[in-house]
Amino acid sequence: MTLISQKIIYSLWKDFGLEFSDSTMIFEVNGKITQSIEKIGGKSETVRDKEIRLDIISLPFNVFLNSNDYLKRSVVDLKKDTLIINSPNLPLSLIQNQTYINFQQENDNYFFSNAITFSKFIDFLEDQDQDQEAAFHFVDSVNTASRRMVFTSPTEKGRVVIEYNNKIPPLNTTIDYNKTLQKFEYCFLDQLGHLPKFLKSALIEQASRTSKDERIVKLFLNLDNVIETAYLNFEIYLNNLSIDHIRRDYDEFKSKYFKEVSEILKNVTQKIIGLPLVVASTLFAMDRIKANDAFLIVLLIIIVITSAYLTVLLRINFKDLKYVSILSDKDYDELKRNKFFIKYPEELNTFQSIKQRISSRIENLKIICESYFWILNIINTLLVSFILFYIGIPKKITLIIGLIILFIIAFARNWILNSAEEEKL
Questions:
Q1: Residues 6 or more apart from 351 whose CB is under 8 A from it?
Q2: Is 45 left (phi over 0), alpha (psi -120 to 50) or beta?
Q3: pTM: predicted TM-score of the whole model, two decimal places
Q4: What pairing do the DSSP bridges indicate for beta strands 43-47 and 51-55?
Q5: In the 8-state DSSP scheme, what is residue 56?
Q6: At what angle do helices 293-336 and 349-391 cross, to 10 degrees?
Q7: Of 83, 184, 343, 365, which has the fewest Cβ atoms less than 10 A away?
Q8: What is the mean pLDDT of each run of 10 residues along the chain (425 residues)?
């Protein structure tokens, strides 16, 4: 019935409307108007046969010319069915808490719901100013006459003043802010203990970022962030955990493992830097003693021993890298298993990046160690081949010996890597 009545009023206004005030709609004189108004139970009078005045209060619903006239706390708190003519745009209707656009129901439009929710939000904050002996007050003082609230920080010196008025701001009609308000109200249930204290701190932090004239609106729009921050800090409190403390501990962990990896890198770097000098010295010695088979054999033995030593050294380096990798993984996994990070996994991002850097360094160092191993052993294989050639070994046999050496080197490399991977702490 209300929907039909609103359609009638809307049609009359479009066809015969002249003036609109807070309580009166003025139409052209027309017999159809009086009959239609009486049909829906409204009261009207004809003035000097020039105009018909409709008493809006007599209607079973509110009527407004535009949405700005509706967006007032004194209006939305009445919780009454409403018609907003909204000319030249499509009319808006609130009928039994359902929104209608052009008299068609729209479940995804939250114009009316959000206006009511904004007013309920302010009402809820005003209700928190309770005269009680409890040490904690969410709102420290409220003056409803001047529309002013004061929040004093429970942990830091300072306070925030929030001012509001009868006007309700235009809100995004595609977002249901009532869900957020319900989450906000849920934070005050007794079973959550100290959560309102953290909610108050988060609210003060959010409100202090904006100027007084837009503080209440910004706070309402960012209520989700306030709630999320409060829950986050509450979880830190419950877990006896401090983000700064964790970062400090993890920085020590980072420094510790970076230092160990750097020491290994330093040792390998020194050998790489000295490689050209060693090769040059060996070639010079070979050139000077190439006519003396005995000295060449001694040099051959030295090169073989050097290669064997290098193989052992590579195994030690890989074991050290594996050790560092396992320890860093264990420390990281212990941190990750904390209940706080299970509930707020996004807070682990900082530590994930540190862990990734350590793992990346270890993998890069493994590549450097293996590259050095192959380069030096291939060079040593070539030097052995030159020595065999100088001694007088046929080229064919020398080639076969070189290939056998490379096979042994490849086997040694695989054995080193596999043993390092299988070894446990």
A1: 246, 250, 332, 335, 336
A2: beta
A3: 0.60
A4: antiparallel
A5: G
A6: 170
A7: 343
A8: 90 91 90 88 88 92 92 87 90 93 93 94 87 71 90 76 92 94 87 78 89 91 92 75 58 61 63 58 61 72 76 73 74 70 68 75 76 77 76 73 75 64 51
